[in-house]
Amino acid sequence: MTNEFSRYLQEFNLLSLVDILLVATVIFALLFVLRGSQAINLLRGVVLLTVIVFLLSSVLRLRAISWLLRAVLPALLFAIPVIFQPEIRRALDRLGRASTLLSSSNRREDVRTIVDAIVTASQSLSEKHFGGLIVIEREVGLREVIDTGVAMDAYLSYELLVQIFFKDTPLHDGAVILRGNIISAAACVLPLSTEANLTDRQLGLRHRAAIGVTETSDAVAVVVSEETGGISVVQNGRIIRRLDAARLRNILMAFYRPRTTRALTRVRQFFTSLSRES
Questions:
Q1: Are residues 160 and 232 in the same domain?
Q2: Could you tell me the residue range of the domain that residue 227 belongs to?
Q3: Distance CA 149, CA 210 (A)
Q4: What is the layout of strands, in order, in the sheet containing 150-155?
Q5: 3-state DSSP call for residue 107?
Q6: In the chain, how many domains are there?
Q7: Spatial distance between the Cα atoms of 226 and 127, rounded to a whole number of angstroms
Q8: Can you give the pTM of this predicted structure?
Q9: How far is Cα 228 from Cα 83, in angstroms, rounded to an integer?
Q10: Tell me: the pLDDT tens digits for 60-76?
């Protein structure tokens, strides 16, 4: 074992370092694509099973396990693209839209336009006591949810949102899915939350659907109650209720802020609190 390790060190060169960095980059890119999705748990199970089988076959030299590994591995390689098809499609979609994400100034202007449209529409629906459910797609794709509704692919505007949720119109019963400044679909069916602690009777089907979709993804949902006219925001299965236009705008702007910016803001707040204490 020591001789083999010494031989590996002697053969290690700059090309070997580049090779290792490329493999690490591929693994990191895979984890980056799958982060926040349900597929990450499946990937962990596959990796854990592979490590266990490798240890049993290599260390203990179990012939039956070794044969099983050789027989299953080719099928597993073919199954991975099928299992991770939504994540692969989302990764390619991100690469295709990379040029639009590089313009930070245009991005900030788009965010303000999107947030203003959502806030204005929510306020209008609240005043008229029209129910509304707007789901904002983030990192985790919502293709399965979009397929349950009516495809629109229309540019976002508050007039269009109000028209969709106008009472007794064909598309008002269901959720609107936003992808950036595009309304991908309307009248979408969302998974209801299975949380047993939801005992508040004021939480109707729209609120439970908003909680359900945010429990299984990183989406943000804006809910307007038809009965009370109250505006709520749901993220990660948690709901913030009784919002006015100003608070709704601040919350949505915080969610649209890039992750790196949010992290820097938390660091600044931390050091500010330390300086105040000192």
A1: yes
A2: 103-257
A3: 15
A4: 150-155, 182-188, 175-179, 132-136, 220-224, 231-235, 238-240
A5: helix
A6: 2
A7: 10
A8: 0.60
A9: 43
A10: 677 776 777 677 767 76
